Structure formats: structure tokens, C-alpha cells
TrEMBL record:
PANTHER family hit by this protein: STRESS RESPONSE PROTEIN NHAX, UNIVERSAL STRESS PROTEIN UP12
UniProt family annotation: Belongs to the universal stress protein A family.
Name of the protein: Universal stress protein
Entry-linked Pfam families: Usp (PF00582)
SUPFAM superfamilies cross-referenced by the UniProt entry: Adenine nucleotide alpha hydrolases-like
Lineage: superkingdom: Bacteria
InterPro entries registered for this protein in UniProt: Rossmann-like_a/b/a_fold, Universal_stress_UspA, UspA
């Protein structure tokens, strides 16, 4: 993974959520002196379906492309007015996810909003952001907040995997002046069984303390592998990470969460990972997913 951010692709479905994401992409492009490409994909299947319903109408696909071109150019003007760079406008026709992934294959960062314009599909398959996060090979930023402020307080949840180390490094690259809060939430998997087996509360407390010490040692080891990452604060906490991450982000008033992409098998990769998915759903701040 590149240690610098030189090319940013902001995918837009022309919704208000995507507009906000494009402004964030513009701000980041300015901060990193990176190029910015605004991408809109016209759904070829939708255009073909409409054409079949209206066979005597002028070519609908061409009309959709022309309308999208005008809208993306207007978006580029808004980005420039907000202080961003002059963006390249790119309109493609095809499957939305496949085309986006192909265009953004060489990007250092992909930015998009948290919602799409197809609520029925999103309900069945997860949001557009989640579907893209399953397959994207570049860091993905899901922009939820207004882009008025730079990232100042960044939460980096870790599980000590290789992707966690990448997340720590990418968080520093993305937000070089922010305070990084590296956080691990650990559970106590056998506590219920121990209690059912009649183990004393004192012994269970000792078991929980041992888990905490092991987590703290693992976190120190992880950070030692990234000695170039400065201004880092660390914390381990007992709790379900699917809940604890967003709770901790709220406590810190973080405006960005950066986490490694979970999934070591094709099945878990397809599901994105329950922790990552829950964080995308529940976080009120921006969320970046970093491949391992």
C-alpha cells in the first residue's frame, strides 16, 4: 500500500450524500496535493430496461450520460468553490460496482457516501458502501459528515492482524496532524462457562485481568512495528467490539474511524466482517476501511 496519497477517486451517484463525500474528497486532495477524479457510472441495465419499455424514444442511455455529465461538472464546480482542486470528471456506463472497482484500481483512496439511490437493493444486499467495501483493493473512505473540518481525532480499532497494522499506518498518512487513538476491545469468551462450572468470582476476575494484560502486550507489540507513527494514544477495553468501537468514537468525538478490512476466507470476505459492517452502519463519523 502506498504511504502517500496521490490519486483520489470520488464515486458519486449524484445524491446529497455523494455531494458531501465529493467535498470531503476535494478537501483531502487539497491537503495531500493529490489529483481528484469524480466518477459517475450510468447503470447500463437500467438504461436498457427503460429503452425496452419506450422503444420509440430517443436513445435513453445517451440522454442519461449527457445528463450525468452536466451534473458531475456542476459537482466539480462546487468542489472547486469549496477550495478543492480542479477535478477530472469521468462518466462510465456499465455495472456500477464492477466499473467503479476497475476505474479505482490504481487509486490511493476511494471516497463515497454512505447511501445509494436504490433502497430495495440496499435492503437486500447491504448498502452500496458495504458492497464496494467487500471487494475494493484500495483504502475506502465512507464520508458521512460535512467536510468543514480536517481530521483531528482519529480512532483506529485494531485486532492485531496485518490489516490492523496497515490501518494504523494509513490513518497517519491520511491525517498527518491528527491524534491517533489506537483501540482494542476484547471479550471474555469463557467467562459464562466458568461461572456455570462454579468457578469463583475471584478466579474469573483474575482470568479477565490476564486477558487484559495479554491485549495490552499485543497492542504494544503492534505499535512497536510502526515506530514511524507518532502521536498515538492506546487503550484496551473489555467489551463487544461491534458496540465498543462506536461508543469509544463518540466518547472521543472522533471525526474519523480507520479500521483494517476483516476477512481471512472467501466467506468472511463476502460478509465484510460483522465488526466492520456494524461500524459502517452505526458510526456517525467518517469511516475508512483499509485492505490488509
Amino acid at each position: 500500500m502506498s504511504a502517500t496519497i496521490r490519486k483520489i477517486v470520488a464515486a458519486t451517484d449524484l445524491s446529497m450524500y455523494a455531494h458531501r463525500a465529493a467535498l470531503r474528497a476535494g478537501r483531502l486532495a487539497r491537503e495531500h496535493d493529490a489529483s481528484l477524479q469524480l466518477l459517475h457510472v450510468v447503470n447500463a441495465a437500467s438504461a436498457n430496461a427503460l429503452q425496452k419499455l419506450l422503444p420509440t424514444a430517443p436513445p435513453i442511455g445517451a440522454a442519461m450520460i449527457a445528463e450525468a455529465t452536466q451534473a458531475v461538472q456542476s459537482l466539480a464546480e462546487d468542489v472547486a468553490k469549496a477550495g478543492g482542486p480542479t477535478a477530472e470528471c469521468r462518466i462510465e456506463e456499465g455495472d456500477v460496482t464492477d466499473t467503479l472497482l476497475a476505474v479505482a484500481a490504481d487509486a490511493d483512496l476511494v471516497v463515497l457516501g454512505p447511501r445509494g439511490l436504490n433502497p430495495a437493493k440496499d435492503f437486500l444486499l447491504g448498502s452500496s458502501a458495504e458492497r464496494i467495501a467487500r471487494r475494493v483493493r484500495s483504502p475506502l473512505l465512507i464520508a458521512k459528515q460535512e467536510a468543514a473540518l480536517s481530521y483531528e481525532c482519529v480512532l483506529v480499532p485494531v485486532d492485531f492482524s496485518a490489516s490492523s497494522l496497515q490501518a494504523v499506518r494509513f490513518a497517519r498518512a491520511l491525517a498527518p496532524r491528527a491524534t491517533l487513538h489506537v483501540f482494542h476491545a476484547y471479550d471474555s469468551p469463557y467467562e459464562g462457562r466458568l461461572r456455570s462450572a462454579g468457578v469463583t468470582e475471584e478466579a474469573i476476575k483474575s482470568y479477565r485481568h490476564t486477558l487484559q494484560l495479554e491485549a495490552e502486550a499485543a497492542l504494544c507489540e503492534l505499535l512497536a512495528r510502526a515506530p514511524d507513527v507518532k502521536d498515538v494514544r492506546s487503550r484496551v477495553e473489555l467489551g463487544d467490539p461491534r458496540v465498543a468501537i462506536c461508543t469509544r468514537a463518540d466518547e472521543l468525538q472522533s471525526n474519523l474511524i480507520v479500521m483494517g478490512k476483516q476477512g481471512r476466507s472467501w466467506f468472511s470476505e463476502f460478509l465484510l466482517g460483522s465488526v466492520s459492517r456494524r461500524t459502517i452502519e452505526r458510526a456517525v463519523c467518517d469511516v475508512a476501511i483499509v485492505p490488509g
